[in-house]
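Course assignment 3, question 2. Fill in each field.
Student: A.L.
Task: Predict the tertiary structure for the chain below.
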Amino acid sequence: MSQIEKLRDVLPDAAKDTRLNLQSVFQTTTLTVQQLWGTAVAAAIATRNGEVAKAVFADALGKVDANVIEDAKAAASLMAMNNVYYRFRHMVGKESYSTKPARLRMNWIARPLGSKVDFELFCLAVSAINGCEMCIRSHEEVVIKGGLSEDQVHDAVRVAATIQATAVSLEIADLTDEVQTQTATA
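Answer field:
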């Protein structure tokens, strides 16, 4: 049994749809194995839920090479920085901030270990989780110009959304367990 299946088994009844989606998004036919698992690893890290990240990471091992996993980790790390920075610039809406250089190192974006387009897809998925409109638009444009289809973009974002929902659902399960334990001892 995969680690992701184990996560599915502990999701609460309120997350029945997430349980079903968690199974179906890994059966996509538009994404390559590298795109699917790189997106999943990057998204899992972006949820900031260690249980989800460890499960997805464990299942990705053996399915893709180390370069895909390293690119996914780099995408999650860089977007944690970029999504905050560029979301601020976008939301504040002042031209003066837009003209200032970011002066943030982003060398990995220029030279990922694997496919540049796949790396950008991982960044897009993380940016969707983090809600950075500028980054979403930028990465979507790059992957489309790089030859990916809108169906592939759509499936990658579906993977990210479902992994995020899994992280939230596990928090619901933990909260429910904690409240039930407190109620039983009161």
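Instructor remarks: The mean pLDDT is 93. The radius of gyration is 18 Å.
Grade: pending
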